[in-house]
Structure formats: C-alpha cells, structure tokens
Write a structure and sequence with these properties.
This protein has 176 residues and is of the alpha/beta class. It has five helices and six strands. It has helices at 2-7, 30-46, 94-104, 109-127, 153-166; strands spanning 12-18, 52-60, 72-76, 79-81, 87-89, 131-132. The strands form two sheets. A four-stranded parallel β-sheet has the order 1-2-3-6. Strands 4-5 form a two-stranded antiparallel sheet. Helix 4 packs parallel to helix 5 (153-166). It is elongated and about 55 Å long.
Length: 176
C-alpha cells in the first residue's frame, strides 16, 4: 500500500487497523497489535522522505485498546447493546442485523437507529477520538430502506442530534 501511494503521488498515508476488542473477530490481538505497530514503524523508516506514514487505530466503543501508541484514533461503533443485555453487531451480515432488530427492537428499525445514534454520539463526545468513523454504518444493510426509512423525520433527527453531540468531541469525519 505504501508503494502504491508513492506511485500515485501521495504525500501521506495513514493506516488504521481495528483495535483490540473482545467482541470483534476482525480486531487485533495483543500480539497482533504489537506486530502492527512494529510494521508501521518499519514502513515509516523505509519510506522516510518519500511518504509520511501515520500509525492509527480504529477504536470501537467497546474496545479496550490503549490510545497512547497511536498517532490518531478513529472512533466508531460496531456493536449495539440490546435491551436483554446481548450485543448486536451492526457491521455484519444483513440477515443477522435484520434478525437482531426483530428480536431485540420489536422489529422497529427506527428504534434500532435511535439506539445506535445515541450510543455513537455519546461515545464520540466522551472519548474524543481524532476522527469520527463511518457515522452512518447502520445504513450499510439498508440500501433499499428495508430496515428503516432514512428520509423519515425521526431518523434524520436521531442522526442529526448524534452528530451535534459527536462534534463536541471531534469535528473530523471519515468517509469510507
């Protein structure tokens, strides 16, 4: 990736793997995090003068990774606590999200959306990451509006209120 960035005329490149978390199977392990940091440091030295490389991490609301070793942190929410105490992955297969909404939110996608945005706004304003990660992640499985109506007033209000709260902790938004 560093060579491709150089070939395309980039002046800087940031890496951001998923931080350690007991919930995410795609997150780094403790040893994986150490190897990730070592590799990015190696790339920084190797490409010094040609490409400025930054070491970042995407930290989920329920991650337990430390902030200190990273130059920047992307704050995001990949999981939503359900009323029964379980966790629903929002960045997972559509059928899992759909079933989770049915089971834990009485089939109400708007209720699910409100819960997600309340969690995300609160997390970003409190944790204060450097970048807000994929703010509208819940729309990933809602391409045809099957889970909730993204144009309905209540949905827009929930998202807007969450963004208003989030920007008190961070004003840079990732687009991915």
């Amino acid at each position: 990736m560093a060579l491709a960035a150089i070939d395309r005329g980039f002046v800087s490149l940031g890496f951001s793997s998923h931080a350690r978390s007991r919930l995410e199977t795609s997150s780094l392990s403790e040893s994986g995090e150490a190897a990730y940091i070592t590799e990015i440091d190696r790339l920084k030295k190797k490409h010094q003068g040609r490409l400025s490389i930054r070491l970042g991490i995407e930290r989920d609301r329920f991650s337990h990774a430390e902030r200190a070793p990273f130059e920047y942190v992307i704050g995001s929410a990949h999981f939503l606590p359900c009323p029964d105490g379980s966790m629903l992955g929002v960045d997972t297969a559509k059928d899992i999200v759909t079933e989770g909404i049915r089971l834990h939110f009485a089939g109400d996608g708007l209720r699910f959306s409100r819960a997600y945005y309340a969690l995300l706004g609160d997390y970003i304003s409190g944790y204060r990451p450097d970048i807000i990660g994929h703010f509208d992640l819940i729309s990933k499985n809602n391409q045809q509006g099957e889970l909730f109506d993204p144009d309905c007033r209540e949905y827009v209000k929930a998202a807007t209120e969450a963004m208003d709260e989030a920007v008190t902790g961070c004003s840079l938004l990732e687009v991915n």
